[in-house]
Amino acid sequence: MQIYMVGGAVRDALLGLPVKDRDWVVVGATPEAMAAQGFTPVGKDFPVFLHPETREEHALARTERKTARGYKGFAVHAAPDVTLEQDLARRDLTLNALAVAREHCRPDGGFDPAQVVDPYQGRRDLEQRILRHVTPAFREDPVRILRVARFSARFTDFQVAPETLALMGEMVEDGEVDHLVPERVWQELSRGLMEARPSRMLEVLRVCGALKRLLPEVDRLWGVPQPAEHHPEVDTGVHLMLVLDLAAELNAPLPVRYACLGHDLGKGTTPADVLPRHLGHEGRSARLLQGISERLRVPVDCRELGEVVAREHGNIHASGKLNAEAVLRLLERCDALRKPERFSQALLACTCDARGRGVAGDGLRDRPYPQATRLQGALHAALALPTHDIATQAMAQGLKGPEVGRRIHAARVRAIEQALATMQMA
Ligand SMILES: Nc1ccn([C@@H]2O[C@H](COP(=O)(O)OP(=O)(O)OP(=O)(O)O)[C@@H](O)[C@H]2O)c(=O)n1
Ligand SMILES: [Mg+2]
């Protein structure tokens, strides 16, 4: 048997990027031969094995043939006679269809670039910064549409080859993305959101038509105007892209990026006669985002933050004028006292929303967002109160449940009032 390192590890090493996990392909072996060498089988759908020591994945060389729609609809042919070239041919992109024989891989993961097996000009495409499909077998797995979009968000100076974009468009036309399982869609979307330029993922998905099928609520935002005095970029889709890229620049965690994705969905359903204003879009955003969260089985931390930000971002932006009583109400609506960390994330999403606007060079992206500091200070003051002592004292004075609650509430309002006054002076 012959063992080759393949896929992302070869690509990333050639790009000079750190290599995280290594995948291997085994040519000329049978499952029995693998077992005899101490490999453990793990693949459910494919013959994949774990190396006895490194636990790295080793897959038998295989070809795949499409048998039906969707992610599960293909037959796998893995046999000792499948060649390396055949295995590389069924892979998604030329830059992922590179291989290096194990004997040429150094223990540190490095290798001599001259040893790279490259039957599909992957290295040329790497140098020219092109994401290009290997063969028409690309069609066999519609998840690859999402992968190309995600790689565009990661490799920010790469372009999708026109013929690959055209093929992706055909696949969308043929209904291929309509049958993807929600878990796979979320897996790829969430990874793409975590890349350096999430806007590039949306752009690729939009251009090939996949966004309209997967996230029509998001796709609709392009072409929807906003008032130019608050949004010099005008287009809501453009605003969304600026917000997401700023979230990435600020290293925001996934729930924040998901909240950014969802915060303005309601602007897509604003009646035409009130445009470009979007009064009350927040409530519509929250409902639309809830639909996406359910459809894609989005994890609960993303779901909850997304809903809070969708519903409250307008109030948070306008919170500079609120008095202590109203600030406390806002904190309570966000459940900030019980979930202060989630509230910090909401403020980060709002910061991205406030600064993710404008046109090149207008400086809006660097403007301060004092609302976040002010609300954070107010929350801090409310949390610092010894509520337990206040309650004990109130009960010692004979006060009952709701009255004790009012006592605590009043104390919180006073604490916030003081904090706001101090911040005003600073
Ligand atoms: N839908 C898919 C998934 C994977 N692959 C192939 O399997 C390799 C390994 O897959 P994976 O680890 O998912 O992707 P990587 O390219 O390694 O990228 P990442 O850095 O995101 O792991 C890819 O390089 C590609 O050759 C593919 O052709 N089609
Ligand atoms: Mg990988």
UniProtKB/TrEMBL annotation:
CTP binds at G8, R11, R91, R147, R150. ATP binds at G8, R11, R91, R147, R150. Its cofactor is Ni(2+); Mg(2+). Keywords: ATP-binding, Hydrolase, Magnesium, Metal-binding, Multifunctional enzyme, Nickel, Nucleotide-binding, Nucleotidyltransferase, RNA repair, RNA-binding, Transferase, tRNA processing. It catalyses: a tRNA with a 3' CCA end + 2 CTP + ATP = a tRNA with a 3' CCACCA end + 3 diphosphate; a tRNA precursor + 2 CTP + ATP = a tRNA with a 3' CCA end + 3 diphosphate. Signal peptide: none annotated. Nickel for phosphatase activity. NCBIfam families: PRK10885.1 (NF008137). HAMAP family: CCA_bact_type1. This is Multifunctional CCA protein. The lineage of its organism: Bacteria, Pseudomonadati, Pseudomonadota, Betaproteobacteria, Burkholderiales.
